Amino acid sequence: MSLIDDEHSAPIVAAPEGAQADDRREPVQVRAFTREDAARWDRFVEADCAEATFFHLSGWERVLREAFGHRCHYLLAERSGSIVGVLPLAQVKSMLFGHSLISTPFCVYGGVAALDEDAGRALTERACALAEELGVDYLELRNLQRRNPQWPAKDLYVTFRREISQDDEENLKAIPRKQRAMVRKGIKKGLSAAQDQDVSVLYECYSESVRNLGTPVFGKAYLEKLREVFGENRCRTLTVRNGDEPVAGVMSFYFRDEVLPYYGGGKASARHLYANDFMYWSVMQDAASSGAVRVFDYGRSKVGTGSHDFKRHWGFEPTPLHYEYYLVRAKAMPNLSPTNPKYRLFIAAWKRLPNALATRLGPLLARSLG
Predict the structure, then answer these.
(1) pLDDT (mean) for 349-365
(2) Each residue of 51-96: pLDDT tens digit?
(3) CA angle 243, 263, 267 (to 5 degrees)
(4) Which DSSP category does 314 fall into?
(5) Any idea of the CA torsion for 23, 131, 68, 157, to the nearest 10 degrees?
(6) With 90 as the cut, is the pLDDT of residue 21 above it?
(7) For 210-245, b where at least 16 C-beta lie within 10 A, e where not — what string?
(8) Does the predicted TM-score (pTM) go above 0.85?
(9) Looking at the DSSP assignment, which residues form a beta bridge with residue 31?
(10) What is the distance of C-alpha 364 from the center of its chain?
(11) Would you give the DSSP letter of residue 77?
(12) Are 75 and 117 in contact (CB under 8 A)?
């Protein structure tokens, strides 16, 4: 019996250039990714598969394994020797938060990226079988599109994406009036923004902002690993300063014609300086000036949160994300969200920790909160 609903499978996508029509008649073979597959895998993600994202790149396998020690199970589907689908998976095991197989932890998008429904079905069925073999609580696929309607799914997250112009004035005018005023105030404060090779300043700003939200922060080594694996062309760090004082920072990912400001935060002084508004405007300016970036991806937010409202104020409309769950040992979908009432006391206590202590203790917990 199939583990997925054939009637609701993803739509067929055109085969990559050079593929033969008769290839569709050949069976799909699913196997484990090896390091020798990395170049082919990434060519497929970048050039052949429209639904693939930055978070499908093979470099994440190394990041998750080396930065957090997570065991990865990357799967690829082949037909007649050509890759027709990929599925990045990582196993997260925690005494506090359970045992899961996720595509992909620490990434807002994931799930199957395939050229046709046969490849997508084969990868999903293999992932379900793997989840059973590993004895996890659940398999989680972080899809942009609903692929398995018969599975339970969360509607907690949305994403914000919009095309931008290469002209700064056009981009500024596209921001609604009240938020545009916030950007202008940041500019008038005399703030400066510049690319930074070192992630130390970003980590200082980001860890403080995350602590203020009551959330454990990962270690600085994770940001360093991202820079090491993806390089300057794909992973850039921007620091905002008030004079000589760093007040905010953000790490952005570049993929195809998109920019994704991903890990960003500011110190307590950033708010009255409008440094966060200025920071995201600076990312947009930098991306637009390259001439290669067409889409600004503000990433995911939880519905009903301040982050969600902030992005809407920039004129971005939310698009639902579809996080689907194949339950193995679990009886219901997990709820590791900070909005879960069971974490209220923990969050309140974490907010009161000195930042130095929070950054020492945080990585022990954050590795399981991907």
Answers:
(1) 80
(2) 999 999 999 999 999 999 999 999 999 999 999 999 999 999 987 7
(3) 40
(4) T
(5) 80
(6) no
(7) bbbebbbbbbbebbebbbebbeeebbbbbbbbbeee
(8) yes
(9) 76
(10) 21
(11) E
(12) no
